[in-house]
Amino acid sequence: MGGIGSGRRNQGGQNITSDYHCIDVRRLQRDNLLVPSLSFSWNWYCNNEKIASIQILIQRDRIILDYQYQRYIECQRETKDDRAARRADRICDKFGWMRGILNNNGNKPKGMHWKTYLQLTAKHDAFVNVALVGIAKRLGILEKLLK
Fold first, then answer.
1. Alpha helix segments (H runs only) across 39-79
2. At what angle do helices 80-95 and 114-139 cross, to 10 degrees?
3. Which of helix, strand or coil describes residue 144?
4. Looking at the predicted structure, is the pLDDT value of residue 3 above 60?
5. Position with higher pLDDT, 69 vs 80
6. pLDDT confidence tier of residue 73, bands split at 50, 70 and 90
7. Taking the CB of residue 117, how many other CB atoms lie within 10 A of it?
8. Residues 60, 38 contacting (CB under 8 angstroms)
9. Dihedral sign for Cα atoms in the order 32, 18, 70, 59
10. Residue 52 and residue 42: Cα distance in Å, rounded?
Protein backbone atom coordinates (compact mmCIF):
# COMPACT_ATOMS: atom_id res chain seq x y z
CA MET A 1 0.00 0.00 0.00
CA GLY A 2 0.98 3.66 0.12
CA GLY A 3 4.06 4.89 1.87
CA ILE A 4 4.70 7.73 4.26
CA GLY A 5 2.51 10.70 3.47
CA SER A 6 0.03 8.81 1.30
CA GLY A 7 -3.69 8.76 1.89
CA ARG A 8 -6.12 11.24 3.34
CA ARG A 9 -4.83 13.56 6.03
CA ASN A 10 -6.37 14.22 9.40
CA GLN A 11 -7.44 17.67 10.54
CA GLY A 12 -3.95 18.67 11.61
CA GLY A 13 -2.19 17.19 8.57
CA GLN A 14 -1.09 18.65 5.28
CA ASN A 15 -3.56 20.02 2.76
CA ILE A 16 -5.24 17.74 0.28
CA THR A 17 -6.73 18.70 -3.08
CA SER A 18 -10.29 18.69 -1.77
CA ASP A 19 -9.28 21.35 0.81
CA TYR A 20 -9.15 23.91 -2.00
CA HIS A 21 -12.06 25.48 -3.83
CA CYS A 22 -12.70 25.13 -7.54
CA ILE A 23 -12.85 27.81 -10.17
CA ASP A 24 -14.34 27.01 -13.58
CA VAL A 25 -12.34 28.55 -16.42
CA ARG A 26 -15.25 27.82 -18.80
CA ARG A 27 -17.48 30.07 -16.69
CA LEU A 28 -14.85 32.81 -16.77
CA GLN A 29 -14.77 32.53 -20.55
CA ARG A 30 -18.58 32.53 -20.80
CA ASP A 31 -18.75 35.67 -18.62
CA ASN A 32 -16.10 37.38 -20.81
CA LEU A 33 -13.68 37.67 -17.89
CA LEU A 34 -10.63 36.29 -19.72
CA VAL A 35 -9.64 39.66 -21.17
CA PRO A 36 -5.96 40.73 -21.01
CA SER A 37 -5.20 43.37 -18.33
CA LEU A 38 -8.40 42.50 -16.42
CA SER A 39 -8.06 41.91 -12.68
CA PHE A 40 -10.79 40.74 -10.29
CA SER A 41 -11.37 38.63 -7.20
CA TRP A 42 -13.57 35.63 -6.46
CA ASN A 43 -14.80 34.75 -2.95
CA TRP A 44 -16.21 31.64 -1.27
CA TYR A 45 -18.43 31.75 1.82
CA CYS A 46 -19.56 29.29 4.48
CA ASN A 47 -22.32 30.39 6.86
CA ASN A 48 -21.97 34.01 5.71
CA GLU A 49 -18.24 34.05 6.57
CA LYS A 50 -15.64 34.42 3.84
CA ILE A 51 -13.48 31.31 3.92
CA ALA A 52 -11.49 31.74 0.73
CA SER A 53 -10.71 34.22 -2.00
CA ILE A 54 -8.70 34.28 -5.17
CA GLN A 55 -7.26 37.29 -6.95
CA ILE A 56 -7.20 36.76 -10.70
CA LEU A 57 -5.00 38.78 -13.06
CA ILE A 58 -5.43 38.11 -16.76
CA GLN A 59 -2.40 38.74 -18.95
CA ARG A 60 -1.98 38.21 -22.66
CA ASP A 61 -0.12 34.91 -22.32
CA ARG A 62 -1.04 33.73 -18.84
CA ILE A 63 -3.39 33.95 -15.85
CA ILE A 64 -1.98 34.72 -12.42
CA LEU A 65 -3.92 33.33 -9.44
CA ASP A 66 -3.36 34.37 -5.83
CA TYR A 67 -5.39 32.00 -3.64
CA GLN A 68 -5.98 32.59 0.09
CA TYR A 69 -8.08 30.60 2.50
CA GLN A 70 -8.75 30.11 6.19
CA ARG A 71 -8.18 26.47 6.98
CA TYR A 72 -9.82 26.52 10.39
CA ILE A 73 -13.22 27.31 8.86
CA GLU A 74 -13.35 24.39 6.27
CA CYS A 75 -16.94 23.30 6.99
CA GLN A 76 -16.53 19.55 6.37
CA ARG A 77 -13.57 19.20 8.74
CA GLU A 78 -14.71 21.54 11.49
CA THR A 79 -15.11 19.79 14.83
CA LYS A 80 -18.41 19.87 16.69
CA ASP A 81 -16.99 22.09 19.44
CA ASP A 82 -15.36 24.51 16.95
CA ARG A 83 -18.70 24.82 15.15
CA ALA A 84 -20.47 25.48 18.47
CA ALA A 85 -17.96 28.22 19.39
CA ARG A 86 -18.44 29.86 15.97
CA ARG A 87 -22.23 29.76 16.37
CA ALA A 88 -21.99 31.26 19.87
CA ASP A 89 -19.83 34.06 18.42
CA ARG A 90 -22.43 34.73 15.74
CA ILE A 91 -25.09 35.19 18.43
CA CYS A 92 -22.71 37.55 20.27
CA ASP A 93 -22.49 39.59 17.07
CA LYS A 94 -26.30 39.88 16.95
CA PHE A 95 -26.33 41.15 20.53
CA GLY A 96 -23.31 43.41 20.14
CA TRP A 97 -21.48 41.41 22.82
CA MET A 98 -17.75 40.70 22.86
CA ARG A 99 -16.94 37.47 21.00
CA GLY A 100 -15.44 34.51 22.85
CA ILE A 101 -16.87 31.62 24.81
CA LEU A 102 -15.24 32.72 28.07
CA ASN A 103 -16.65 36.26 28.01
CA ASN A 104 -19.68 37.14 30.10
CA ASN A 105 -23.05 37.68 28.48
CA GLY A 106 -23.96 41.31 27.92
CA ASN A 107 -27.28 43.11 28.10
CA LYS A 108 -30.37 42.77 25.92
CA PRO A 109 -30.08 45.03 22.87
CA LYS A 110 -32.55 47.90 22.81
CA GLY A 111 -35.53 47.11 20.64
CA MET A 112 -35.13 43.32 20.76
CA HIS A 113 -38.12 41.39 22.07
CA TRP A 114 -37.57 39.61 25.37
CA LYS A 115 -38.73 36.30 23.90
CA THR A 116 -36.12 36.54 21.12
CA TYR A 117 -33.44 37.59 23.61
CA LEU A 118 -34.17 34.68 25.94
CA GLN A 119 -34.24 32.15 23.08
CA LEU A 120 -30.96 33.37 21.61
CA THR A 121 -29.32 33.54 25.06
CA ALA A 122 -30.32 29.92 25.72
CA LYS A 123 -28.89 28.87 22.33
CA HIS A 124 -25.71 30.85 23.00
CA ASP A 125 -25.23 29.21 26.40
CA ALA A 126 -25.85 25.73 24.92
CA PHE A 127 -23.25 26.37 22.19
CA VAL A 128 -20.77 27.60 24.81
CA ASN A 129 -21.30 24.44 26.87
CA VAL A 130 -20.70 22.18 23.84
CA ALA A 131 -17.54 24.13 22.97
CA LEU A 132 -16.18 23.96 26.53
CA VAL A 133 -16.86 20.21 26.85
CA GLY A 134 -15.11 19.61 23.51
CA ILE A 135 -12.08 21.62 24.60
CA ALA A 136 -11.98 19.78 27.93
CA LYS A 137 -12.05 16.42 26.08
CA ARG A 138 -9.24 17.48 23.76
CA LEU A 139 -7.10 18.57 26.68
CA GLY A 140 -7.87 15.44 28.70
CA ILE A 141 -9.39 17.46 31.54
CA LEU A 142 -12.54 15.34 31.78
CA GLU A 143 -10.57 12.11 32.22
CA LYS A 144 -8.53 13.69 35.02
CA LEU A 145 -11.68 14.88 36.79
CA LEU A 146 -13.36 11.47 36.50
CA LYS A 147 -10.38 9.65 38.09
1. none
2. 150
3. helix
4. no
5. 80
6. very low
7. 15
8. no
9. negative
10. 8
